[in-house]
Amino acid sequence: MGVGAYAAAWLAGFGAPFWLSIPFGGFVAAAVGAVFGIPSLRVKGLYLALTTIAASFILHFIFFNWTSVTGAARGLNVEPATFFGTPLVTNTHLYWLAMPLAALSVWCTTNLFRTRVGRAFIAIRDRDISAEVLGIELFRYKLISFALASFYAGVAGAVWVYLFRVITPESFRLIDSIFFVAAIIVGGLGSVRGAIFGAVFMTLVPELLKLGVATLEPFYPGVVQVLSPVRTIVFGALIVGFLIFEPLGLNESWRRVRHRFALWPFRT
Question: Rounded to two decimals, what is the model's pTM?
Fold first, then answer.
């Protein structure tokens, strides 16, 4: 995401419009993801997670020290995106840029699984040894998946930089990576719908908890300072509890509810 943001900001600095810099950020992120994927895909599980975390530290070092491109600690400033001469400067303006891109990404990902590449992804996910016996090149398709995921993240980073219009190395922290991983786990691994559910859950629950604490402020002055840490603890407890009692994520809960009411009220 950081690579895509810096690539888009760098190209925008030469006067490129947003409809060029956003896909450019995605393609640069895909290339970098593929490079880091070559050594990373030789390991699995926890070791794969550790190698990707190591990659993030390497990139963070580059963001801090490649002054001619990233601006180092000073960062880069980006002019607002313009659409037919209208600058997109507010959150509402950027919503009409981000939402169509998100919808297009969901549509492309959903249809990807109907292609040969998508079916190869599913086969490798379910049983990689059997997939290799069937003639699927594991390394090739794993590298494609790495690059494709990096492309989506790069596009997201490019849109992000047009929202805040300034980027520094501190804009992309390890805690953000943990947030995204938690959203995927809570929503349900291996599912586009689960990714959406997880993003909604991880975004709305802290805001609802914050709203609940603020509602008590008129009745109990100073309660915000007292309960602010508790809000974080409750949020973490919700995630842990969810993983214990619904390890397959929100998507599995949705699937069960939909199946239960498929023939309602005739189903007993």
Answer: 0.85
